[in-house]
Every structure is written in C-alpha cells, then in structure tokens.
C-alpha cells in the first residue's frame, strides 16, 4: 500500500470533538444534545396525550424539511406522501473491467473526485463520487481470483474506501485507520474466497463516514462465483439483472445537499427526496420475463419496507452475503441501512403494464421506536421509488429454481461474546432546565460541522459521545475485543436503546441463529453482514473468523446508522 496515513484525520479530532468539561461548564454542544434528548421525552409524553394530529411543529426554527422528525402531515397509514413522477430513466452503473496483469491478477482503478450531478430533474447538485460525479462503477470480481485495486483521492480532505462484506485482512479492509490523504492513492490487493454476493464499497473515515457517504460515495462490488448462471437465475446486467441502490437526500433551494441541518438528525440523517441509482423516482424498461433486482439500502439511516404498489409478490433469493437455500415468497421486505437483498419478480404475463416499487413504511417503521419523533412523515406513510415498464421479452429468459445452495451449519468453538447497544446518552439530565427553550433558539446550521462537503455541504457532527456499545464509545487507540484466528464464535447482541439499531461486523459473514430465542424468518437464514436489532431484542449471531487483523488495522463492529457510528457506536477487534 502507498499512502500517507495517521490514526486521525488531520485536525478532525480537535475540530469535531469538544472537551467534556471546560472551566467548570458544559460545552455548548453538550447542552444542545441534552436539550434534544430531553425534548424527545417531553414530546413523546405530549404526543401520547394529544395525538400526532395536534402537533404543529413544522414552523419551529432549525427543524429542517417538514419540521422535526415525525412532525409532518399526518395522513392515513399507507397513503403515499409523494406519488412517483417517473419521467427519467434509471441510471445503471457500468461494470468496471479488471484487465489481467503479468502475474495473473486483475487490476481495477477508482478515483474519488468532486463533480456535479442531476439528482433531481433540472437541478444541478455538487457531489462526490468514484470515477464519476455520484456513486461509482460496479466491480465484478471473480471468486478466488487475485485482484489489485488502486484508489486515488482527488478530494480536498482525507477519506477511506471500505469493502463492505468482503472477507479480506484488516490491512485491506479500508477501515478508519486506512486514510488516503488528498492527492494520494492506496493500493489494495486481495483474493475473495466467499460465495457470490452483492457487496458494496463506501468511505469509512472516523467521525465522518455519514457525510462522506451522503455526498455520493458508494458503489457495488459483486463477487462472481458462477453459481447464479448455473442455476438459471437472470444475470444479464441491465437487461434482466438490475442494481437498485436506494437513498434519501435533503436539498437546499440552490440544489446543494443539506446534511444534519436539524438537531434531530443526530438520531439518524433522513432526507425528503428519494433516489434510485442517483436519480429521483426514475423508471426502468424491463422484459416480460423473470427479472432480478439487487436491492441495496444505501441510506444513512432510513429503513425501507420494499413492496409493489399492486401487491405483486416476489421471491427473495439472496441476502447480504449470498444466495439462500431456496427462494422465499414475500409481498414486502424490510431492509435497514446497509442491508441488501436480491429478489426475482415474475413479469412473464405483464407485458405492456407498469409496476411501482415503493416503501410501505407506515405498516412497520413507526413501531420500531418508543419515541414518536424518531419516525418522520415518510416513515409513517409510504412513498414511491421506481417504476418498472414491462416490454417484450429480451434474450434468453432466466428462471426461478426450486433450490439454490446449501447453507453450512457452523459449530461454535470459542466462548460466547455479549454486546449491548445503548441509545442517546444523558436523557435524564437533559430533562432539567427547559429543553424546549434551548431548541427554540436554534436554527439553520448552527452548531453543525464545517461546511467542507460538496458545494459547501455541512459535514455535520461527528466524534460526539452519544451512542455506545457495551457502554463504550469508539476510540481509535482502544482494541475492544480480541478474537482467535480460525475460531467460530457466537455473538449475542442486545438492544437496550429506545429505537432499532443495526449491527455490522467487518471481515466476515454471519448467520442469524435466533431473535429472542426464535429462529429467524426464512429470508434471513442465509449469509449476512448487517442485522437489524429491534428495541429490547436479543439477536444471536454465529461467524467464523478466518481473516487476520492486527492492532494497527483492526476490524470494526458498529451500528450502520451512520450518525450513530460517527458518534460513538463502534468498536474495534483484532483477529490473530
């Protein structure tokens, strides 16, 4: 690897992380955080007593689009907030080839740089991307083939590139220790010996993962083992096999991205415009045959309950890290931030018709938190994402197999590890001293991070001690867990917070053994690397750790709500 590296981004620790106590007084940011937490409790009680319809928060200063989360228009559950327009075609990220080198490896090159994108029709937005203005190309990597990937950073600040879901050593993982300075590059070299899957890559700098991903930096990494083709699954890219990267964003009047411009965004950044592959509510032409959609929740925090507006069923054939044992028929599928799923849709009798993929959020999402303010008006209702326009069959049609792959049973050979997830800290103390008054005095981007993102986008607030795992906050110099190389462990994850959290583990894939002692649903019985843990729920995971990671480049485990990760909800572990 060639890079200028340090354990912290230059100046970032001092800029984003105020002292806990200075001259006998709490920092201004701590007071704001306490006010938010206290007001959440106060408003939760008010909401319970009055009902959501009696709350008029949209005009409060500093609350961002639609007021505070959950305080928007209160229409009937299941109603569509914004019906799709579908006037632009869905972009399909191109596949980046890897030319063969003299040593037999395949070489790929990525360049991180600023650009301008038309995310909304007729609106130019400054963004960041890989090999383009927004998102990045799809890397298709053959299983067992040695690859070399050069990532060059043409931004004005350090960043990293993490290979999410890839079984690679810690030195190649692209975690927060692997900073790429402006004008420098990093060379990755590894071999992926894992099942075929839809993985992805994105930045992972300590305290700044949220804004860097929000700015547009992400792309797909497909592990190709040929099993899908042998099974007859649709596999022609852009014909019957489509990437569907779903993200929400918030925009200013001038078209720039708005990041964490509301105090409630600390609970997880949610936007009010919905993009698929970097385009708001597009359409895609599909053939009247079996079609494969690779669903990726690329949002910072929002959950999507994917469903077709017509009620059409579909079949889940793969989870985060590989194919399932057999297809599972569903009419809706909940995916949390960073989760992926591959689904097959039967369009053989639908030529000439249209289908709308949407999120039926109102039926699921509000119940995932005990505080009404955590769910915004989109969470409480539903919204359209993508229109499928069914045309004539094209080429050889894929099929839905009865059986796909064998999922091996793992046997534990090490002690069980316990992980507890804690929510926003300091709520009790925040109840004292008039939280609402503190909130009412804030507006716009006050208190938020430096505006060094694309087009002057705020970088939000990172490195605050707000969310924790095992009552420990992320510290770059601390190794929280030590795992034996080659061991198979059960990790028990308990959510003690008031809202659902995700849990992601680097360097391996896991299986879900149980949720509160009950076997997971069939569509969760394959390989995964992200799991949604509901409030008061205990999830047991089992994984084998075959990739080494030392103390200089440890693996991470963390919540993949990026604003939680950036503000403490992450730990480090070695494998040796």
Ends apart, CA distance between termini = 21 Å
- Number of helical elements: 7
Uncertain segments: 1-78, 426-447
Work out the helicity level.
Answer: under 10%
* Class by SSE composition: mainly beta
| Total DSSP E strands | 31
| Strand proportion | 25-35%
How much is the radius of gyration in Å?
23 Å
Dominant shape: globular
> What composes the largest sheet?
7 strands, mixed
Q: Order of strands in the sheet with the most strands?
A: 12-11-10-14-19-16-17
Q: State mean pLDDT (0 to 100 scale).
A: 85
Structure description:
It is built from seven helices and 31 strands. The chain has helices at 12-16, 28-50, 209-214, 227-231, 427-430, 435-440, 562-566; strands at residues 95-96, 106-117, 125-130, 138-142, 146-153, 162-164, 185-191, 197-202, 219-224, 241-249, 273-276, 279-280, 283-287, 290-297, 304-308, 314-319, 322-330, 333-335, 340-346, 354-359, 383-391, 417-422, 468-469, 481-483, 488-495, 501-505, 510-515, 530-533, 538-544, 555-558, 570-575. The strands form six sheets. A seven-stranded mixed β-sheet has the order 12-11-10-14-19-16-17, with no helix packed on it. Strands 1-4-9-8-6 form a five-stranded mixed β-sheet, with no helix packed on it. A hairpin with a 7-residue loop joins strand 2 and strand 3. It is globular and about 60 Å long. The chain starts with 11 loop residues before the first helix and ends with a strand. 52% of the residues are buried.
Task: Please tag this protein with its features.
globular, 9% helix, mainly beta, 31 strands, 576 residues, 5-stranded mixed sheet, disordered N terminus, 7-stranded mixed sheet
């Amino acid at each position: 690897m060639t890079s200028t590296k340090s354990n912290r981004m230059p100046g970032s620790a001092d800029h984003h992380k105020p002292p806990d106590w200075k001259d006998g007084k709490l920092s201004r940011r701590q007071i704001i955080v306490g006010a938010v937490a206290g007001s959440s409790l106060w408003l939760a009680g008010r909401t319970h007593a009055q009902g959501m319809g009696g709350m008029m928060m949209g005009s409060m200063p500093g609350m961002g689009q639609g007021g505070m989360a959950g305080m928007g228009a209160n229409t009937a559950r299941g109603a569509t907030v914004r019906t799709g327009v579908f006037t632009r075609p869905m972009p399909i990220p191109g596949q980046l080839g890897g030319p063969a080198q003299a040593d037999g490896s395949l070489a790929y090159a990525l360049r991180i740089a600023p650009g301008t994108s038309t995310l909304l029709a007729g609106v130019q937005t400054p963004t960041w991307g890989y090999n383009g203005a927004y998102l990045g190309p799809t890397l298709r990597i053959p299983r067992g083939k040695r690859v070399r990937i050069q990532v060059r950073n043409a931004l004005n600040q350090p960043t990293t590139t993490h290979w999410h879901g890839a079984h690679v050593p810690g030195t190649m993982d692209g975690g927060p220790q692997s900073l790429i300075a402006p004008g420098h590059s990093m060379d990755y070299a590894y071999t992926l010996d894992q099942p075929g899957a839809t993985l992805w890559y994105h930045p992972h700098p300590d305290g700044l993962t949220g804004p860097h991903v929000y700015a547009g930096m992400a792309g797909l990494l497909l592990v190709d083992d040929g099993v899908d083709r042998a099974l007859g699954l649709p596999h022609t890219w852009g014909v019957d096999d489509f990437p569907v990267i779903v993200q929400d964003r918030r925009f200013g009047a001038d078209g720039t991205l708005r990041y964490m411009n509301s105090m409630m965004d600390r609970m997880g950044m949610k936007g009010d415009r919905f993009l698929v592959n970097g385009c708001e509510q597009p359409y895609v032409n599909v053939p009247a045959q079996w079609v494969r959609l690779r669903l990726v929740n690329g949002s910072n925090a929002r959950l999507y309950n994917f469903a077709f507006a017509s009620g059409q069923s579909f079949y889940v054939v793969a989870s985060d890290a590989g194919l399932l044992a057999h297809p599972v028929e569903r009419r809706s599928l909940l995916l949390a931030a960073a989760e992926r799923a591959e689904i097959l849709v039967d369009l053989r009798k639908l030529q000439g018709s249209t289908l709308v993929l949407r999120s039926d959020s109102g039926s699921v999402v509000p119940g995932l938190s005990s505080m009404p303010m955590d769910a915004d008006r989109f969470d409480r209702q539903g919204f359209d994402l993508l229109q499928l326009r069914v045309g004539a069959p094209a080429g050889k049609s894929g099929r839905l197999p009865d059986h796909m792959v064998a999922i091996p049973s793992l046997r534990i050979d090490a002690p069980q590890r316990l992980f507890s997830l804690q929510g926003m800290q300091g709520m009790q103390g925040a109840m004292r001293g008039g939280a609402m008054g503190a909130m009412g005095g804030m507006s716009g981007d006050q208190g938020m991070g430096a505006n060094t993102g694309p087009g002057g986008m705020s970088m939000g607030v990172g490195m605050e001690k707000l969310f924790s795992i095992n009552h420990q906050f992320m510290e770059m110099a601390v190794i929280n867990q030590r795992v034996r190389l080659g061991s198979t462990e059960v990790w028990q994850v308990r959510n003690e917070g008031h809202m659902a959290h995700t849990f992601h583990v680097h360097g391996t894939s896991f299986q879900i053994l149980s949720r509160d002692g009950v076997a997971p649903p069939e569509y969760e019985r394959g390989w995964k690397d992200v799991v949604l843990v509901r409030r008061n729920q205990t999830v047991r995971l089992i994984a084998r750790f075959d990739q080494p990671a030392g103390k200089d480049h440890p693996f991470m485990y963390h919540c993949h709500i990026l604003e939680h990760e950036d503000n403490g909800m992450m730990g480090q572990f070695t494998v040796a």
